[in-house]
């Protein structure tokens, strides 16, 4: 949690009371014996004969071959935070299983994260221990982190196919995990950037903590009703296919905008304190506006967007809540007209809040010889705006201990019976201003749109900060300018984040290892109609947390299956033009004014 008061982010940082960098813990090691564990292996607990888990506190490595002894060690140890790296995916499931089967242990809280877990807290009746996933702080593999941070202990290598019991080799491999993670965390928290601000346990909260050291005036949180209204205008990056096929002439160039979000944070002014509601539309004041607009149907790349439910950029008539910067630009460009205005929330102008923060950190990143500092700065610059827009209502899960006014969510079976989980809402007492975060993403989409307008006649695909076009553009490493990333003789774009460009194959939601055999011809055939060309076999594996909970058992295995693309691109209308070449046009919406009320 951020250490600010509930309604402001202050200019002074506070130190973190927990000594969280003192713990490192390796994932559980489960030899495969040539194949993943079967359902029978899991249910009969055969995995326990291969279990080895370790703990390192900076001085002593401790090994355990059962979780009961591990928990006894952790509760006897003076520190109260334990890190697992990517533990929220699978490893926490084993710990939760032990907690459910041990009457003396009580699960106090659990916060999901995606398909896994961010953290959970367990008590033995005398004290509480916090288990955290360190990938929320450093979202890279442990091997990559150890290499980039240049720590003394590098992650080891082991052939699981040859391991059938806890061997000295396995213990040595475990030790390298423990020491490498500890040394990485130690270097992270010892860096001047983090040390001067105070330590946090996620990169999002750490970035906000660092921002505090740069701003000169406190920024107020949004009142609840304003928070909800501004959040309706908060959307992500623009990912669109315009022309799905490129076969020449020439080469398709992929350009990236250097640090898109930091660049717009540095160069623009942002809303500050909430001023008030109004039924008058003023596009010269910082704010957010609920409007019914008409976007001209001859516009190729509209500025305004709609969640319908997909995130699209349509033409026609529709309701939306937009920031002043996007709505004003769409009107000034002649793309859109406001037909009805319902209400606006106006804010004071806080000025260039991030100018010094971004300018100083980006300069330090470019000039630093330290891989640690460069990694931290990149993460901080790209995480800050998201943390500022944090939704303070988080989903939580608790075990049902007979609390009042709760709704059962999941029943989980284990060797001692059945445990019932209940869903909770965790209201964080922290700073949040979705209006600022919304402005950051709005400015980023407008910067993206400027390049779309520049490349409109040749653009093939855009993904937030990247563009595929055969046109040449000046290559630069400066903040906010374009850098040439790759050249491709052929490319085919099927869905957002699903394409082949030269030797690069990307398929969102598919194992990167299993898709590399696909060729350009496979994607082209799929584009023409045969989606079965892009089909892979998915092996049986242990279910992640959310799937496990739904199936009623923490250590369930999924079934082997076949996976393929199920849908076609539907964020724009694809068609062949008169020359027989692929092109597209925006979707046309025709909402009624009465669809959103009077």
CATH class category name of the domain at 20-185 and 393-427: Alpha Beta
CATH architecture of the domain at 20-185 and 393-427: 2-Layer Sandwich
Provide the β-strand percentage band. Answer: 25-35%
The named CATH superfamily of the domain at 20-185 and 393-427:
Ribonuclease H-like superfamily/Ribonuclease H
The CATH topology name of the domain at 20-185 and 393-427 reads: Nucleotidyltransferase, domain 5
Straight-line distance between termini? 40 Å
Q: State the helical fraction.
A: 25-40%
Number of helices: 15
Major pleated sheet: 5 strands, antiparallel
- SS-derived structural category: alpha+beta
Q: So what's the overall shape?
A: globular
- Physical arrangement of strands within the biggest beta sheet: 10-22-23-12-24
Radius of gyration: 26 Å
* Poorly predicted sequence stretches spanning 5 or more consecutive residues: 1-23, 29-44
For the residues shown, what is the average pLDDT? 87
Task: Count the beta strands.
Answer: 32
Describe, in short, the structure shown.
The protein is α+β, with helices and mostly antiparallel strands. The protein is globular.
Describe the structure in your own words.
The chain has 598 residues and is α+β, with helices and mostly antiparallel strands. The protein has a domain at 20-185 and 393-427: 2-Layer Sandwich (Nucleotidyltransferase, domain 5), CATH 3.30.420. Helices cover 28% and strands 28% of the residues. Strand 25 (491-495) and strand 26 (498-501) form a beta hairpin. Helix 7 (203-212) crosses helix 12 (371-388) and helix 11 packs antiparallel against helix 12. The radius of gyration is 26 Å and the shape is globular.
């Amino acid at each position: 949690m951020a250490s600010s008061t509930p309604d402001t982010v202050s200019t002074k940082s506070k130190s973190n009371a927990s000594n969280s960098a003192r713990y490192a813990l390796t994932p559980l090691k489960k030899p495969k014996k040539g194949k993943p564990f079967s359902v029978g292996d899991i249910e009969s607990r055969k995995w326990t004969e291969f279990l080895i888990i370790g703990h390192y506190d900076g001085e002593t490595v401790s090994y355990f071959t059962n979780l009961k002894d591990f928990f006894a060690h952790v509760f006897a140890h003076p520190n109260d935070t334990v890190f697992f790296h990517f533990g929220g995916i699978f490893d926490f499931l084993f710990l939760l299983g032990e907690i459910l089967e041990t009457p003396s242990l009580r699960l106090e809280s659990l916060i999901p994260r995606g398909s896994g877990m961010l953290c959970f807290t367990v008590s033995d009746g005398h004290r509480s221990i916090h288990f955290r996933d360190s990938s929320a702080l450093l979202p890279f593999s442990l091997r990559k982190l150890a290499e980039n941070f240049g720590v003394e202990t590098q992650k080891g290598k082991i052939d699981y196919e040859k391991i059938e019991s806890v061997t000295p080799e396995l213990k040595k491999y475990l030790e390298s995990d423990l020491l490498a993670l500890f040394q990485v965390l130690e270097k992270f928290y010892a860096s001047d950037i983090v040390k001067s601000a105070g330590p946090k346990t996620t990169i999002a909260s750490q970035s906000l903590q660092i921002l505090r050291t740069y701003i000169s005036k406190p920024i107020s949180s949004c009142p609840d009703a304003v928070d909800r209204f501004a959040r309706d205008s908060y959307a992500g990056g623009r990912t669109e296919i315009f022309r799905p096929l490129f076969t020449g002439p020439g080469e398709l160039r992929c350009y990236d905008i250097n640090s898109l979000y930091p660049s717009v944070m540095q160069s623009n002014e942002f809303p500050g304190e909430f001023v008030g509601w109004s039924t008058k539309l003023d596009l010269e004041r910082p704010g957010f506006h609920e409007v019914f607009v008409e976007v001209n149907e001859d516009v190729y790349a509209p500025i305004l967007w709609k969640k319908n439910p997909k995130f699209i950029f349509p033409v026609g008539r529709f309701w939306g809540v937009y920031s002043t910067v996007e709505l004003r630009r769409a009107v000034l460009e002649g793309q859109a007209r406001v037909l009805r205005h319902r209400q606006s929330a106006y804010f004071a102008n806080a000025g260039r809040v991030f100018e010094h923060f971004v300018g100083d950190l980006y300069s330090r990143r470019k000039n630093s010889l330290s891989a640690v500092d460069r990694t931290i700065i990149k993460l901080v610059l790209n995480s800050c705006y998201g943390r500022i827009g944090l939704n303070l209502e988080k989903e939580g899960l608790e075990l049902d201990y007979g609390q009042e006014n709760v709704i059962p969510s999941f029943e989980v079976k284990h060797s001692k019976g059945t445990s019932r989980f209940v869903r909770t809402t965790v209201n964080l007492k922290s700073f949040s201003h979705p209006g600022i975060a919304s402005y950051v993403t709005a400015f980023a989409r407008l910067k993206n749109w400027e390049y779309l307008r520049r490349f409109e006649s040749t653009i093939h695909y855009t993904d937030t900060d990247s563009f595929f076009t055969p046109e040449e553009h000046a290559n630069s490493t400066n903040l906010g300018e374009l850098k040439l990333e790759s050249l491709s003789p052929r490319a085919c774009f099927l869905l957002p984040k699903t394409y082949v460009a030269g030797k690069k194959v990307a398929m969102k939601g598919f194992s990167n290892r299993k898709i590399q055999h696909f060729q350009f011809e496979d994607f082209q055939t799929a584009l023409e109609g045969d989606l079965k060309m892009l089909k892979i076999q998915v092996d049986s594996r242990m279910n992640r947390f959310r799937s496990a909970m739904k199936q009623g058992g923490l250590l369930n295995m999924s079934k082997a299956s076949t996976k393929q693309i199920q849908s076609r691109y539907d964020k724009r209308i694809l068609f062949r033009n008169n020359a027989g070449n692929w092109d597209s046009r925006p979707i046309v919406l025709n909402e009624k004014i009465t669809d959103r009320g009077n």
